[in-house]
Structures are given as C-alpha cells and as structure tokens.
Amino acid sequence: MSTLEVRDVWHRYPDADAPALRGASVAVADGEMVSVVGPSGSGKSTLLRVAAGLLRSTSGEVLVDGRDVADQPTERRDLTVMFQHPLLFEHLDVAGNVAFAPRLAGSGRREARRCARRYLRLVHLEGMDSRDVASLSGGQQQRVALARALAAERGALLLDEPFSSLDRELRASMHDLLVEVRAALAPTILMVTHDLDEATLAESSVVLIDGRVHQHAPMTEIYRRPATVAVARLLGGFTEIAGTVRDGVHHCAWGRLPVAAEGAGDGAAVLLVRREALRLEVDADLGAGPGIGARVVRRRPIGTRVVVSLVGDDDSPLEVELPVGEDVRPGARFRVVLSDRRAPQWAVRDERPGSAAPALAGEPEEDTRRPVVDGGRSSVGPA
Ligand code: ADP
Q: Taking every annotated instance into account, which residue ranges of this chain make up the domain ABC transporter (predicted)?
C-alpha cells in the first residue's frame, strides 16, 4: 500500500467565475482512510479527480508514496477509483469484471479468475462468478465494483460517493463490508462523501468548503470543535453567539463566558454551542449567570427529541434540543442558558461577512442588561 498526498492544489475550470479548488491539501498515510466532506459544489469531486489524474489541476502537486505523479496518467499512478455508479463491463460476467485488472497486469486467464474469486469471496459474492452483471441488484453490482477495484491491487483506493445511489439498508451493509475489507487488506483510502455519518468510517475527515480545507480531524473532534462557522453550519445543530474574546473570556449579549485556549484569540469571535448543550429556564432571571431572554418561534420533533427555534433579545436565532413532551409553545418566552456553565466554551474567529463584533473599548465589565421578568423559576429541558 501507499501514501497519498494532494498538496496546495488550485483548480479553475475553463470559463468558471471562481476556482473550484483554492490551495487544498490532504495527506493520507499508508493504510489509513480519510474522508472528504463538504456541501454540494465545494470541490470534493474535483479534488478526487485531480488526485486520480482524471483532471489536471491549474497548480499543485499530487504525490503517491512521496513521488510527484502530476504528469502521470491515472493508470500509472498506482491507484484505482470507484464511482457512485458501478460502470461494470456488461459484456463480461461477474468474475470477468473482477479479473479485468489482473488480466491487464499480465496474469493468465485462469490465474486472473482465481484472483477474482478471492476478492468476490471478500465482498460476499462467492459462487456468483458466472452471473451476468446486468442480472445483479444495485447493491451486488456495487460489491462487484469494489471487488474489481481491490483486485487491481493498487497502492491507494479513491472512492467518489461510492454508496450514495444505494438505499439506507444497502448503504449500511456496504459500510460494514468496507470495515471488513479494511481489516483484511488495510488499503489506503480517500473517500468523497456528502454523508456526514458515512464520513465517520474514516479515521479522519477533511472538511472542504468553497475549495478550501477548513478542517482535517477525526469527525468526533470536528463535531466537538468545528474550526470555523462554515464547518459548524455544515454539521448543523450549533447556535452562533457573536461577541469578542479578551484574555480567554468571550463578552457577548449573554454575559461573559470563559473560552477554550485552543480556539479564537483576542478579537471578534463566535461561540459555537451545540443545541443539546443549552436549556430553557422559565424565569428570565439575569442574576443566575450567562444567558439570554428569547421567544420561541418554532418547534420541530426529531424522534424522541424536539428542536426548539427561538429568537434572542438581541435578535439572534437560537436552537435548543429538548426531550419531546416539554411544554414549549411558539410565542412563549424563556431564558436560554448553558447546561454546564463552568465548562469553557468553544469560540472561533468571526469571519462571517458583514459581522461587526462589539468593540472592545466601552464593553461593560458587569452585566448591566435590562432584567426580564417572565414567570416562575422552574426550568425545562435537560439539566
Ligand atoms: P462537489 O463534488 O463538492 O459537489 P465539484 O468538485 O463537483 O463539487 O464542483 C466544484 C465547483 O466546480 C462547482 O462550482 C461546480 O459547479 C464546478 N464544476 C464542476 N465540474 C465542472 C466542469 N466540468 N466545468 C465547469 N465547472 C465545473
């Protein structure tokens, strides 16, 4: 197996207004799997096509095992690509499809079919060698495509939305299969996907937005600490609280909140708070610590939980996730507070267009906001 690296790649399609890739870099270690996620049109396929040699980038390097392959065609790059649609050879049977690469590499017919059978066993299609590929289900065809890609025995495997044409159940079984294949062969894999759950199959994920890599980290870390507001928006479920960081404290309409040292330094910064880390208090008691008065505008059930959308007294949109059944009706007023008031919050630099964070000078040291009196003191939502 091999390492794969894409270094500082720029790409602009002819006649395009803006570059599809702006200095994107991704490194995949030997035997590692990295997924690339991002909104539609963010450049994921372009990145994969550049890595595969299907597209020549405007500038940048592609290295396989440390060797620059930018001038090499796909077949000389020691990698193989699998797409969303299996693109099987209809004139060949199942084993013939899988044996194609070994045949091309010089194996005899019998040896190549023996090799094909080995990979068909790995993808749980033993005994189907002589089947006509057109007679297979979509899921089986994608298994053949995976076996064919593996049978090429190249250093790296590039997967472009490989399972997105399959229904949920089939996709889940392909995910299980990929885990098995990784345990058996440890291929180096770069996978493009728009599915954030699928992305977690990889050790780490690259978040590509507008052709730029915003973050490269394990998916759990990306959810915990999104590097930018754009990443948080892609994940969904975050409330953005604008303000200013000074000496490790975020000053905003909610009051003053300590922030994690790894996040934004001094200056305009947005707190990114997960909606399940917030709760609603019936009383808008400002003495209770940082929080903000807000009015419910919408409630949306998701399974056993309900997502409550509110508008804060500073007109900012807020989302809070509660167990279903809480008495939260549109129009009701609450105070939105953090469930854990002591934990340092996650702040990133405020780079949102048009955002004007409050100036540091003149920032009140004490919370002097108008108290909001609204009902009793009980709280709703998880403590
Ligand atoms: P993704 O895979 O993340 O959806 P793509 O890499 O397909 O994104 O596209 C990135 C950007 O490049 C988009 O704005 C898209 O419209 C543009 N683009 C993609 N392919 C072409 C092409 N062949 N010609 C011109 N523009 C393209």
A: 4-235
Pocket of ligand 1 (CB under 6 A): 13, 16, 20, 38, 40-46
Q: Which atom of ligand 1 is nearest to the CA of 46?
A: 6
Q: What is the gyration radius of the CA atoms in the chain, in angstroms?
A: 26
- Do the beta carbons of residue 10 and residue 57 sit within 8 Å? yes
Give residue 20 CA to ligand 1 midpoint distance, Å.
6
Which residue out of 9, 22, 46 has the highest number of ligand 1 atoms within 8 Å of its CB and is therefore the one to mutate? 46
Residue 29 placed within a domain: yes
Q: What is the pLDDT of residues 326-343, one digit of tens each?
A: 778 999 999 999 998 888
Q: Is 178 a member of any domain?
A: yes
3-class DSSP state of 258: strand
Are 177 and 244 contained in the same domain?
A: no
Q: Is 51 found in the same domain as 106?
A: yes
Q: Which amino acid is at 115?
A: C
Residues 12 and 61 grouped into a single domain: yes
Are 203 and 273 members of one domain?
A: no
Residue 244 shares a structural domain with residue 173: no
List, as one string, the DSSP characters of 205-220: EEEEETTEEEEEE-HH
Mind spelling out the 3-state secondary structure of 224-247?
Answer: HCCCCHHHHHHHCCEEEEEEEEEC
Query: 301-323 pLDDT, tens per residue?
Result: 999 999 999 999 999 999 999 98
CA distance 208 to 239: 21
Instruction: Please count the other Cβ atoms lying within 10 Å of the Cβ belonging to residue 118.
Output: 14
Q: Whose CA is nearest to atom 10 of ligand 1?
A: 43
Beta partners for 193?
Answer: none
| Burial profile 349-383: b = 16 or more Cβ within 10 angstroms, e = fewer | bbebeeeebeeeeeeeeebeeeebebeeeebbbee
